[in-house]
Amino acid sequence: MIAKLSKFLTLALATGFGIGLYAPFAPGTFGSLPGLVLVFLMSYLSVPLQIGFCVLLALFAVFVCGKAEKYLGIKDDGRIAADEWMLLPIAFIAIPLFELPLYKIILMFGVVRLIDILKPWPCKSLQSIKGGLGIVIDDFVANIYSLVVNIFIWKTTLLG
Fold first, then answer.
1. Most buried in the list 7, 58, 96, 114, measured by CB within 10 Å?
2. Nearest Cα to Cα of residue 92 among 117, 112, 119
3. Phi, psi (5° rounding) for residue 158?
4. pLDDT tens, 3-33?
5. What is the pTM of this model?
6. Rounded Cα gap, residues 74 and 52, in angstroms
7. Residue 74 falls in which region: left (phi positive, over 0), alpha (psi -120 to 50) or beta
8. Which residues contact 58 (CB under 8 A, 6 or more apart)?
9. pLDDT (tens digit, 9 = 90+) per residue, 66-122?
10. How far apart are CA 90 and CA 93, in angstroms?
């Protein structure tokens, strides 16, 4: 009974609460959506706590994705979205979301998705790493790139 519950909870987290299973297309984009809740919750924290929160989420994502990959039996299964939604907050560290209009937040979310889809160096090659780390590390790096772009968007557009 506990094993079944553990598997159910792991797959629920790994698939973005089922979104990765049922998304009609772009499961990574749809699977990222639960991460927006984390992004807004994180914005109430100080920057050092935001960084710590993101590190903990990334480590937890490695665990969840690794377990889900074993359960599903497919390397980096497209239905696994925990790497998308659990790491999304990285791309918003230190950005005061509540000061921004909605269109800028949507633009920043689009930046995250575009960089994840394009997988700039070394993201694509990092996917060859086995297990949960291989599923998560490319998204970790992509979200760092996204953070740099998002801070640029925030700093340059906040003035006008």
1. 58
2. 112
3. -65, -25
4. 889 999 998 999 888 887 787 778 888 889 9
5. 0.91
6. 31
7. beta
8. 86, 87, 90, 136, 140
9. 999 998 888 777 788 999 999 999 999 999 999 888 899 999 999 999 999 999 999
10. 6
Q: For residue 148, how many other CB atoms are within 10 A of its CB?
A: 13
Q: How far apart are CA 101 and CA 97, in angstroms?
A: 8
Q: Which helix (H) or strand (E) holds 53?
A: helix 47-72
Q: Which of 54, 68, 70 is nearest to 17 (CA)?
A: 68
In DSSP notation, 62-80 reads HHHHHHHHHHHTSTT-TT-
- Amino acid letter, residue 47: V
Residue pair 112/87 in contact (Cβ under 8 Å)? The answer is no
| pLDDT exceeds cutoff 60 at 158 | no
CA distances for 90 relative to 9, 68, 120, 151, angstroms: 24, 22, 17, 11
